[in-house]
Amino acid sequence: MRIAIISDTHFGDDHSQMVSKAVLNKKYYEAFRQAVRDRFEKCDYLVLAGDILDFSIASYDEAYKCADVFFKQIRKDNLTDKVIYIAGNHDADIWHIVQHQRHVINKIANHNTPESFQHSVAGILDDRSDSPEKCKGLTLDGVTAKEDEKKYGGMFLDGIADGITFYFAYPNLYIITDDESVLVTHGHYFHPYWSFMGELVQRIAYYPYRYYDDDNDWKLKKMLRGIDIEKTVQLNFPLNQFACTGIGQAGILTDKIVRRIELDVKNRELKKVEKYLNRLEKVTENRFLQLLLIPIKGLVKLMFSIFRDWLIKKIDDMDPRYNKPFFQNNSDRIKKFYEAVLEECDSINENNELPFKAANRPLPVPKKIIFGHTHNPTSWKKPVKPFSRGPCFCNTGGWLKEKNKFEAEIFFYETGKGFSSVRIEESSR
To answer: Same domain for 102 and 204?
Structure first.
C-alpha cells in the first residue's frame, strides 16, 4: 500500500500556493508532484486531511474552479486514482453535501424516505500483513461496501476528474500497519471556536442519571455522558456551519468585509478592525443608549470602550497556531478529543459486521496523530509529544502564504517501509 497525505490547500483563497484564481502554480505543484514521484510511481490513496476547498472565504464556484484544476492535473500526471477526503472547518460543507446526497437525494430519487445523517464515519486503512485479504484496504465504519471495485465510490466529486474515485470519512481516518496505528484528522476540534458549542453544552446541559457505585447502591450523578466523536460533531455543528458556508457564501459580506478583515488580522494590520468597532460603538450609542438613563449611558460607553481595546489587543497578540503555545492553550480540548477517539475505537471494535472484527483483528489505539489546521508543519521524525501519557502529533502545515512564507509537510506511507515526510517551503528571504 502506498499513501500520500496533505492538507490545507485552501482552494478558492487567492493566497493558496497550489492553485490560485483557477491557475495552477507550476512551481509548487511541481514540488508536490516530484515529492510523490520520489517515493513511488503512483499512490494507492491520496489522503486530503481537510481545508482543501475554502468555502469560508470563497464562493462555491470559485472554490470548485480551483479544485477542478488540481484534480484534473493529478489525474493527468497519474499520481493516483483514489482520494480519501476528510473535511476540515473551511470545507465542512463537503461532508454535509455527501451526507445529503447519500441520505436524502439518493433516497428520494429511488422513491424512498430520507434517512438521518451519519455525523461521523471513521475510515480504516488496514495494511497489516497478517490480516485476511477481505480486511485489507479501505473500510468505512457504518457504510455498506458495494460489490464493485469502487467499493464506496459514486459520490458527487467523482465527476470532477474522470478516473478519480473519491471516498469520504469524517473526522477520522485510521491507518493500521504491522508496527503502529496512526490517526489522520484535520484538527479543528482542537481549537476553541470549533469545539465551543460542545464544551458549552457539556457544562450547562448535563443531566442526572442513576448509576451503581462500589457498594451496589444507586447514586445520582450529573454529567452529559457518552461524548464520542459523533456527538462531538453534532454538538459543534451550528457554529461550524456558520463559520464555513455561512460566511463564505454571504456575497457582498464575504467579498467586501470578511476577506479584508481576515487578511488584515493575518497581517496584524488592525486599522480597519478598529474602524469597524468604532462604527459599532456609534451605532450602539445612536440606537440603544438613548433608551437608557444618563448615568447608565456613561457606564455602558466605558464598558464598550474597554471591550474594544481588549479585543484589539487580543487580536494583535493572537498567534495560537504554533506548536508549543498551541498545545498548552488547548490541552483540555485535545485530551477530550483523544478520549472521544478512544470511545470511537471501542465502538468500532464492538461492530461485528466489520471484516477485521469478524477476523478477530481489532483496531489498535492510535499512538500517533497526523493533523493540519494550524499551518505549522511538524515532521514524522520530530513529532510533538505534549502529554506524557498521550499520543505524539505531526502536522501537515499548509499551502497558504502567510507572513510572506508558507510551509507544507507531505506525509508518506509504504508497506514495509513505514511512514516518512518531506517539507515543501518558501519564504520571502
So the answer is: no
